[in-house]
Structures are given as structure tokens and as C-alpha cells.
Amino acid sequence: MTEMVRKITLSRAMRTMQELFPDEYNFYPRSWILPEEFAIFLAEVHMIKDTNPSWRPTFIVKPDGGCQGDGIYLIKEPGDVRMTGNLQTRPAVVQEYMSKPLLIDKLKFDIRLYVLLKSLDPLEVYIAKDGLCRFCTEPYQEPTLKNLHQVFMHLTNYSLNVHSGNFVHSDSGNTGSKRTFSSILNRLSSNGIDVRKVWSDIISLVIKTVIAMVPELKVYYQSYIPTGKPGPSCFQILGFDILLMKNLKPILLEVNANPSMKIEHEKEVSPGVIEYIPSPVDEEVKVAVIRDTLRLVDPHKKKKEEIAEPGDAASQEKDDLLEEGSVEKLELDGSKSLEANIPTICLKQVFPKYAKQFNYLRLVDRIAALFIRFLGVKGTSKLGPTGFRTFIRNSKISNSGFSMAAADILYIDITRRGSGLAMDQRDAGMGLQAFVEAVCFLAQRRYKSLSLHEQVELLIDFCEYNLAALDEKRLACNRVVPERRTALVTCHQDRLHLSPSAHTPPQYHGPTAHKLVDYRSPRP
């Protein structure tokens, strides 16, 4: 998970989704990876400026593995990127800076929301009903050459602003430099703003981001968890950092794999003497997240049921509260509780609860299932040339005007461009992102005059249909299908079609996406 939410990895995953669904993933800032995409960064910015002379952007540079605001800086011109120093050994992401945030008390702030990823397959996601708002400590002004370096104005990181003389520690969630998200929502609601719409947009952002992350996670997961054997019950609490714009549109800043769960702050009471002061705001939000996470993932629920005395109604009600299903039974507004001494569940399930609205976005998830199927060697996350050829042949792609020689050339082109010459031999091969690029290229080549996501979906349907037919043929011959093959074939049963022509495109009809790479123009 730590690798997946690094700024470069997350940006690549989000970029893939932006190519497939540009209108659905417009909540993530335009991003470039440095130093490898520096030339592309320069060219694209100059091109946009030529077509739109009034565009006066600011960019924010974030080190790939950075945290707590370390190494972040703002620039006005692409040429101002610090190409010397650590950039070669410590790559970074440069993003368009969102210069019109919503202000409270003239201060910029962001939202830290806690998200529980309870399970990958099936996908289960919960969002905490409250979060933390971290405030800057200097009144906000839009970026200029004179104020670019004023971190207390532009960067919302708590670890930076806590050192400002203007930072206010407060025992109330309504005041101070760190407040509860619920207090901000109440304030917005009192000003006539539809906070239900704000929450709905945030939930949509979280679900779409998780959908973008899950395919790569599944590839990592299968390389560590033995197939067909019950593995450990894995879960993760993620910290989503979200910025509300002036028009109330939520923007994803980043995702943290290990968000801080401290419920106190440090205070230097005398030179060199540190005292830890409780933070009621942190405690109110974070204790509830930890408590309810343990309720949901607790593998020993049955033992708790056995401890309760038969006929003990109070004990039984407490056990009911510990069950997963109780999340939907409880009043989420906190007005009712079966036991006065047991707090209301603070984690709200958003997936699979809203799965029907978002399942059409899970194209890369289906591509990942194909990728995992043809990995061949247990414990690897890279597809070799033999595995790629087998995919092309078994999916019948090679029977539709695409030769095996062309498949070999495609494999070499993509892996060489993605890996570089200095890659360790142990890491050689085609990763999931490269495989996704190959599938997009094949889809664009096969299906014309459609948006990219429609082309890809048709190709996936075609592949799944042919692979299912192949497995049925083997089943008829061998009478026994290996357990591993069965699991992989049926993992997308709800999306499997009897024939490619029976496919119905999704309701979404976005504009045709730009081609991902130059060589993707149709070949004769």
C-alpha cells in the first residue's frame, strides 16, 4: 500500500483512469513525473499557453516519497524546476496548483478523511463520517512571484503550520488551526450551502480513487498470498487529503498509506523539555476510526457471542453492534443507539453499497485479472514475453489481423520504454501499467470511432469470452478444471458476455480520449 500511494505511482494510476474516463476523473490535478517527463511538461505547458494566452498557472512540485510538506515548493514557470540536487535520485511529481480554494476566516484549509479499505476482493470501502480540517496560519492570497515561498499561506500540512506563531491549539472542534470537518459542514450549511451534495461528491471521489488503486494492489497481493489457501485478513486505514475549491468541487491532493493517529501535540514547556498535551479534536475523530475499524475487521466475533449469557438481551445487543451489518441498521446521524454506552458506528460503507453506480469504471480491474491469469510464475508481478504471447494467442487476438511477430514488437517497445536500460534484471518484464497500455493500443487498433473506454471494454469482452470458451473446452476434455483456473475465470462473472456482439456499452459517453502514446496510431 505504501508503494501504491506514492505520488508517482498514484499519479500514473490516476492518469490511466483520466485517459479512459476524462470527465469522471477530473478531480485530480494535471500531473507530470520528473525528471523523465520534464520535456513533455515543458511542451504541454507552452502549447496550452499558446492556445490560451490568459492562462497564468502556478505549479507545485512534490518529491515522490516526501511527507509532512518536506521538499514541496511552488513555481510559476516550468523552467524554474530545480533540476539539480536530489531530483535525479529522488524523483518528483509536478502538478497544476489549485489557486482558488474555499476559504474559511480568510484561510486556506484541506480535509483529512479516513477511509477503511477492508477487503480487495470483494472490494469493501468505508468512509469515516467525520474528519479533520487543517488550516494554514496566514491569510490566503493567490500565488504571485512575491508570495510563492510563504508556506504558511499555501501549504496546509499540520507538521509545517504547527511551527507558525499563528497556530492555535483549541479544545473545540469549531475553532483553532485544526477543526472537525463536521463543524465546517455545519458552518457551510448555515450559509445555505447544500452539504449533502458536498458529501456526495467526496464519496464519489473516494470510490473512484480506490477503483484506480485496486488493480495494482491485487497484482501485489497475489504475489504474496498463496492461491487457493486462506491468507491473512488484510485491511488498511488510508488518509485522503482533499481540497474544497471555491465552487465546492473536491480535489484530491494525495492519499496517505499510514496517516498519523496521534491524539496529542508536543509543547516545549521549558528549553529542551517537551510535554505532550491531549488534543480533543484529534481524539474525537481518530479514536472512533480505530474503534470501528477493529469492530469491522475483528475475526473473533463468534467468540464474543459465546461469552454473552443466554437470554442476556443487553449482551446480545452489544454483540449485534459489533457485526458488520449493524452499520446499515444504525442511525448514521448519531441520534439513536441501541445502547447508550456504546457509541454509534462512525464508519459508513460506500462500496459495495454504491457499486452499481461505479462498476462500469472498473475496466482496469478486469485487465488486471487477465494480467494475473497469464503471469505464470508465482510470486512475480511482471509478465514475461511468453506470458504475453500466450495472452495474445489464447484470447484469439492473433486471429484478427494481429500477428505474433507484431505482439513481440509491441511487448519490446512498451517494456523497453517503461523500464529503461538500468533496470535490474530481476525486475525485467511487463508490469500492469505497461500491460494496460498494450491493451489500450490493441483496443484502439481493433475498434474505430469509439471513445477509448468503449474500445477497451469491447476488447476485454472479446478476450473474456474466448478465454471462457477455452476453459470450457478444457473442462470437457479433462473433466476437471484446476481450482486456480476456475477462480480466475469466474472472478468477473457478472461482466462476462456470451458473445462480443451482445455487449451493451455503458451509459457514459465521454469524449474520445487522447491516444496514450505516439506509437498508438493504427498500423497497416
Describe the protein's architecture and organization.
By secondary structure, the protein is α+β, with helices and mostly antiparallel strands. The chain folds into four domains: 1-26 and 101-283 and 347-360, D-amino Acid Aminotransferase, Chain A, domain 1 (2-Layer Sandwich); 30-97, Dna Ligase, domain 1; 294-346, no CATH class; 362-520, no CATH class. The chain contains 17 helices and 14 strands. The chain is globular and about 75 Å long. The relative contact order is 0.10. The model is unreliable at 309-339, 420-426 and 484-524 (pLDDT under 50).
Question: How is this fold's topology laid out?
Answer:
Elements: H1 7-20, E1 31-34, H2 38-51, E2 59-63, E3 73-75, E4 92-96, E5 103-104, E6 107-119, E7 124-128, E8 132-135, H3 151-154, H4 158-161, E9 178-180, H5 181-190, H6 195-224, E10 236-244, E11 250-256, E12 264-270, E13 273-278, H7 280-297, H8 301-307, H9 313-322, H10 326-329, E14 347-351, H11 355-358, H12 363-373, H13 385-394, H14 404-419, H15 432-446, H16 452-478, H17 483-490
Antiparallel strand pairs: 1-4, 2-3, 2-4, 5-6, 6-7, 6-8, 6-10, 7-14, 8-9, 10-11, 12-13
